[in-house]
Amino acid sequence: MLYEVILCMRTIMHSTVSGLAAILLLTGTVAAKPSPADPVAQPRVPPRVSTTDGAPVDLAPRPGSEADRLARQLMAHEINEARAHGEKPLVLVGMARLNDEDELLFVQLQSTGECGSGGCSIVSFKYTGSQWVRVVDTIGGTVHIARTGHRGMPDLIVKDASRLIWNGTRYVEVG
Fold this sequence. Notes:
By secondary structure, this protein is of the alpha+beta class. 25% of the residues lie in helices and 35% in strands. The radius of gyration is 22 Å and the shape is globular.
């Protein structure tokens, strides 16, 4: 009887491990190793987001990344101001390539001074010419890319309610 129980448990464990291995292999998690940093072979290209309504912008801490470094440069005044008040803001970043030419850098600073009852501020920058230009200042928890757009740029949906449209130079809230 004990031998049958051990044999049954061994079969169950083998099936479980095999199933997990199959899932990891199918999702590409097995043997996913970062490639060596080679700027020539690995140009920086922000991920392209889906252009269906509801495609979220992934805001996350990414210490040491190029997006984090850039966000800290662009938001240096706000970060220094928070530090002057004894705070150490958490910097969340997300990048989205919206079409063949345009990419946006989304930045959210999380600290007592930067967040209120409506949420934390989200600031977005668009690379124009040779510089990053601030194009969105909004309070919100989530930002989604809309299927619809204005003047060549997709609309942004903030907090699943407010729609921001491109007016040619920046995003503005619709009525």
